[in-house]
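Diaminohydroxyphosphoribosylaminopyrimidine deaminase structure dump, as promised
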Amino acid sequence: MAGGDREWLWAAIGLSMACPESATAFSVGAIVVDPGGSVLARGYSRRDDPRDHAEEAALRDLDPGDPRLAGATLYTSLEPCSARASRPRTCTELTLATAIPRVVFAWREPALFADCDGAERLRAAGRAVVEIADLAPLVRQVNAHLLR
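structure tokens r here:
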């Protein structure tokens, strides 16, 4: 595991706490970091629109031609979705449409709203995927309102 993965994932989890609460969607934070440790984009669920996912919001803020993306990492508190009803493209598809080669997340998406396999799809497409599961309880705590 790269040296800063835990710290960046903590920061993404912190962003998830800024999400307006929803009874129909997870609260998620996402940060894209270049190889030198500079933040390229930040996003959180429902940031600009009630249907926004965190990764979607962060990726929308990127310049797709930025050469730093080829070595960047997407840190997201929840596994990128691979199924969704509110928009035509999933966060997994949006990530695969970028040059970002690496994704780090804390909690696998539970089958509460959809049965997702984003991590597997990203790996199958050749992306490096790191799960830091010991931080998952923090993400569950942010989403406790959905898990009652």
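The beta strands are 29-33, 39-44, 73-78, 102-107, 128-131.
lmk if u need the other ones
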